[in-house]
Amino acid sequence: QSVLTQPPSVSAAPGQKVTISCSGSSFNIGNNHVSWYQQLPGTAPKLLIYENNKRPSGIPDRFSGSKSGTSATLGITGLQTGDEADYYCGTWDNSLSTHVVFGGGTQLTVL
Amino acid sequence: QVQLQESGPGLVKPSETLSLTCTVSGGSISSGSYYWSWLRQPPGKGLEWIGFMHYSGRSDYNPSLKSRATISVDTSKNQFSLKLISVTAADAALYYCARFNFNGPNTHGDYWGQGTLVTVSS
Question: Which chain B residues are closer than 8 Å to A2 by Cβ?
């Protein structure tokens, strides 16, 4: 059971837009920045978004992030078949013991 | 460009100790506010943070693994290591090392190793 809640899967057609939600609590998302990672099949996770909405160098602006209250959202526009991957949200959790927490991951299918 | 590479035995016997090393290149392990981290991913499952350490010695661990995991940093070799004692089948996973930025409310991993698969079997 993951601390952060993500939908197990989402799908959309090439060229369309998709959003992936990440729900937490005041112990984590509510008081800390959220990051998003893309994990292509058979590869290591790759940082897509940090500090809620910032993109590392080299990440296209088709990827965007936002946060409101205790939830965060990853948006991907102009979907490409190469975007098919698992996506994870992550943040710091200040509950009983502080630590890094992740969502369970969302599998994106580009139909 | 910072690169991380995991190394260590791919097979560990139940009840024994898992030991992995991560070699960092393209940057110094003793610079900045980076925390050198270990994470794992059981086959077909999600990411689990094990813990991290700053070169100064400050460390933090996942509460569920804290009693069994130890991370250490060797600045002379630009490496950091993970030891996980008393392993069981539940510890079989793809183990990743990563560099985490950690300051205030911000925590994110910007560089990751390719991962190393650890099997637990007698």
Answer: 46
Of residues B117, B109, B120, B99, the one with CA closest to residue B7: B117
Q: Least CB-CB distance to A99: which of B62, B106, B114?
A: B62
Please give the full DSSP string across A43-71, using - where no structure is assigned. S--EEEEBTTTB--TT--TTEEEEEETTE
Those residues with Cβ within 8 angstroms of residue B76's Cβ, 6 or more apart along the chain or in another chain: none
What percent of chain A stands above pLDDT 90? 92
Question: What is the pairing mode between strands B11-12 and B116-120?
Answer: parallel
Q: What is the 3-state secondary structure (H, E, C) of B50-81?
A: EEEECCCCCEEECCCCCCCEEEEEECCCCEEE
**pLDDT tens-digit series, residues B54-96:** 999 899 999 889 789 999 999 999 999 999 999 999 999 999 9
Residue B27 host element (H or E)? none
Contact A35 B62 (CB under 8 A): no
Which amino acid, one-letter code, is at B115?
Answer: G
